[in-house]
Amino acid sequence: MIDLHTHTNQSDGTLTPQELLGEAARVGLEALAITDHDTFAGYDQAAAALNGIDLICGIELSTKYEGRSVHLLAYFLKGDPGAEFRTWVLGLIASRRQRNQELIDTLRQAGIQITLEEVSARGRGMIGRPHFAAVMLDKGYVASAQQAFDKYLGESGSCFTPRDEVNFSEAVARILAAGGLPVLAHPGRILPDPAAFEDCLDGMRSAGLRGLEAFHSEHSAEQAKAWATLARRYSLAVTGGSDFHGAAKPGIALGAGNIPLSVLQELRRVA
Questions:
Q1: From CA 136, how far away is CA 119, in angstroms rounded?
Q2: Fewest 10 Å CB contacts: which of 19, 181, 237, 247?
Q3: Which residues, at least 6 apart from 89, have a Cβ–Cβ distance to it below 8 Å?
Q4: Mean pLDDT across the stretch 62-66?
Q5: Domain residue ranges of the chain, discontinuous segments joined by +
Q6: What whole-number distance in Å separates Cα of residue 13 and Cα of residue 188?
Q7: What fold characterizes domain 2-79+183-270?
């Protein structure tokens, strides 16, 4: 069993990289990919504290494709992505910081008096919307983190503040140039019906996409099967992961989906 989509407290998860490794060993994972948002900090710390698990270097990037916000997973199955790609990622972090300040301003205009310092104290690495939700919950502005997203922070929320996301094609090209494998994350968030996604997927494949996350905690077994069928139709590698965030998303267990080791073996063959 493997999990190729996880987050540590270096982005918007709650477990330290070392704690995530321990949990992976506890649930019996054979392989684990750390795919923090816009940073390799979690992977780097875990790589220095390996406990025998097959650790995959990964990252999750927010991109823009034909007006849609699309997340890309990048897997570096042959080793470190290198200094050039890491430097490029640092530029993405600056964009995230600017968005966070704009989100604070928007929330304060809506009467939610929180500060960026309060939010920053919740995250050891990258600051994301779950950290905003935690502060809002503690200060009594919402009854739950989910309500914070539904009412204010999510894409349909009143205070949603988009990031200046990198172009999809540029991100794919950067990943490929660094020796990585670009994979579309949780496609069900873009369009829930795989049959309606074919035109979009054809364009993404032409741009260099090499894989699709068919197995995800938000996909039902039937949906996962449909996404996997679509991926194979377009000669894309099939991947899967839980999107584990620890206590930030308590309903998602590490290793959810019972994804077999053969998925990783196929990814390595493609890479």
A1: 9
A2: 247
A3: 38, 39, 40, 59, 61
A4: 93
A5: 2-79+183-270
A6: 21
A7: TIM Barrel (3.20.20)
Percent of the chain, pLDDT > 70?
A: 99
pTM over 0.90: no
| Alpha-carbon gap, residue 244 to 252, rounded angstroms | 6
CA distance 256 to 158: 32
Alpha-helix residue ranges (DSSP H) falling in the chain? 17-26, 41-47, 83-109, 116-120, 129-138, 145-148, 168-177, 198-206, 221-233, 261-270
pLDDT-based confidence at 125, cuts 50/70/90? low
User: Which pLDDT tens digit goes with each residue over 211-257?
Assistant: 999 999 888 888 999 999 999 999 999 999 999 999 878 889 999 98
How deeply is 176 buried, as exposed, middle or buried, from its count of CB atoms within 10 A (0-12, 13-18, 19+)?
middle
How many CA within 13 A on the CB side of residue 49?
14
**What whole-number distance in Å separates Cα of residue 22 and Cα of residue 248?**
18
Distances (CA, A) of 189 to 185, 193, 215: 9, 10, 13
User: pLDDT digits over 192-215, tens only?
Assistant: 888 888 888 999 999 999 999 999
36 contacts 43 by C-beta, under 8 angstroms: yes
How far apart (Å, rounded) are the C-alpha atoms in residues 180 and 119?
Answer: 32
| Residue 49 neighbours by CB under 8 Å, 6+ apart | 17, 18, 21
The model's pLDDT over 154-169, given as tens digits with 9 standing for 90+, comes to 888 999 988 778 999 9
Rounded CA separation 84/91 (Å): 11
Output the six-digit token pair for 126: 């990258």
